[in-house]
Write a structure and sequence with these properties.
The protein is an all-beta fold and 154 residues long. The chain is built from one helix and twelve strands.
């Protein structure tokens, strides 16, 4: 049975899968992929740290993928259609599939904040980005990105 003794030592990725020009501004986000190391296939899991000023993603919602986060330390601001709410260590937030409520996390504090993100690994999904001119389709496990009018992004 796979065990990660110190997930903070897993190599962090500071890039994003978003195409240009939507890939900018994620250098202060450190995402550590845990799924493969644990041998999991049905859901994804990342240990993510947002440095001050960082955001988790562009505000978005998924048609077929559930998501949840568990705050481990620090203070994060959850931004949804309903507004803003501070999340602190021990708090959990869930984002059910098919609910058109764009969400993301921002660290507005002065210290890093760390959380675990968990999500379905559906091979088919549609993602709507609330505040930017981008949408995504996942088919056969592969993402493609387009503007909201359908024009493909690189």
């Amino acid at each position: 049975m796979p065990v990660i003794k110190d997930p903070s030592r897993v190599t962090a990725r500071r890039t994003t899968i978003y195409p240009a020009p939507f890939d900018q501004g994620f250098e202060k986000r450190a995402k550590r992929a845990l799924t493969g190391l644990l041998g999991l296939t049905q859901f994804g899991m990342n240990l993510t740290t947002l440095e001050p000023g960082a955001q988790s993603s562009h505000r978005h919602w998924h048609a077929t993928e559930d998501e949840a986060i568990v705050v481990l330390d620090g203070v994060l601001t959850l931004i949804t259609n309903a507004g803003e709410q501070n999340l602190t260590a021990g708090m959990i937030a869930g984002f059910p599939a098919g609910v058109p409520d764009g969400h993301h996390l921002v660290n507005r504090g002065t210290q890093p904040a760390t959380y675990i993100e968990i999500g379905t690994r559906a091979s088919e999904d549609d993602v709507v980005y609330s505040d930017v001119d981008m949408q995504a389709k996942k088919r056969g496990g592969i993402f493609s990105f387009a503007r909201k009018n359908g024009d493909q992004l690189p």
